[in-house]
Amino acid sequence: MYLQCFEDVKEITECLVKIPSIVNTDGEKNCAKEIYKYYSNLTYFKENPDYLLLQEIKDDEMERYNVISMVKGTKGNSNKTIILMGHLDTVGVEDFGSFRDYAFDPDKLPEILKSLNLGHEVDTDILSGEYLFGRGALDMKSGIAGHMYLMKYFSEHLDELDGNIISISEADEEGNSNGIISALEVLKEWKEKYNLEYIAAINADYSTPYDGKDENQYVYFGNVGKLLPSFHVVGKGTQVGQAYEGLDPNLIVAELTRNIELNTDFCDEMMGEVTLPPISLKQSDFKEGYTAQTAIAAQSYYNFFTFTMSPGDVIKKMKEKAIESFDNALDYVNKSYEKYCKLSNMDFTKLNWETRVYTWEEFYNELATIHGEKFKIYMHNFAKELNELFPSLDLREFSTIVINEAWTKWSDDKSPAIIIYYSSQFYGRITVTGKNELERQLLDSVREAVEFVQDYSDKPIKTKMFYPYVSDANFIASSDDIGEIKTLKKNMPAWGTKYTYPIDDILEINVPVVNIGTFGKDGHKLTERVHMKYTFENVPNITYTTIRKLLK
């Protein structure tokens, strides 16, 4: 059966887009309450109020909420349960400039955009009438809207399901994923309370064409993983009039970026697909204001996508590249100094710098060996108190402060060095290859659903093996070995005080994941827009058919 759902999903989408729900604002709470209201008005949830929850996110200063609902089928006695998921928050609207008041107005925004001369493609898409514009339209309120429609539909057709569906509309995906992490607790609780057997998760996050000529629309199994390898570089400060008496950490960081950024040697390959190479997300020193002294320390960190590589694999590769970069920087400095000595008729003596590279684990263990338990106790208490005093401190900044404390207070050797660590939320990779029965069932069901809906689609629908962006789906399953999580832990200065990866909760769910999501163009941009026919009609039908096949 093919559902005629276009107008219903469009109406829900427009309602949600008109609610500004920028991450880390009260708008997230407002949007969650609107979704909760939608479900509360359904007859099924009036009769089964225990199956609907407005869950406050744990330890959240913003007072944000997830909306979690469950429909239990009556076709049979199966406890098999499918998780539908999507995030209700959006990125900010700074890119709209003076037109930010229209960012959440899909009715008026197209005319505003037409007046900005944004190019032929945008103007053509506006005139086509095929797209809905607005912040969050693509990423990803239209995906939530499709799930809301399906939950309503199945609540009125319980006899179609031999099993159950849980829908999660979570906050904070664009931030630190605290929404889905909190939702894991409800999934665990309901699993025990209702004797549920989780068999699959369907995310509805967005995708776009790969280039201007790409006519395909995509469904993705699994999810790319993400790490943030980070580098704390300590040099030797000097006055600018004595340039060769110091070692500029900015030079070393620049060499790190040259050797890591867009280096295709770090592309991860699996099943015919390839990740993007790393790219720099920050590069700076720690000087405050202008002085005539070079910087003492600097930092950089890089986005690193994975299909097969573990945290241990990545930090090993980063250490090799850090050693190479340090060597290159020292070689450059000495060659420069030698040329300067010739120009100045001075005798050249090689500068006495040495390459020193540690992982955080190695640096921490070295100091612990020297100073014993008092070092471990001090560092734990320092990090704990730092988090208590400044709970909103950015995770990356927090890590820098912890490393600097260890360096300045406990390290006797202050000669230049690089310390490599992880400083951000970990997104574990998810592979769905057919290695077990649950994966085979999901692969078969989705492919059959795509084949069925293809007849109703204007463009080809293709399946790929990895969703190419990190998402909240990364917290529903894990393909990483537990031992590799320990490697992550040992190389995160924030672990245990400001950050912990909820691996135990994830493994309680641990189901194969597919992204049957929204499709459009320019996610996170001024011209964000969702393709209505595919997203409001084809996507809910692929999801619907997949659910029917899994819970037949």
TrEMBL record:
A Pfam family hit: Peptidase_M20
Top-level taxon: Bacteria
A molecular function (GO) term: hydrolase activity
Matching InterPro entries: Peptidase_M20 (IPR002933), Peptidase_M20A (IPR050072), Uncharacterised_RocB (IPR012166)
Official protein name in the record: M20/M25/M40 family metallo-hydrolase
Originating organism: Paratissierella segnis
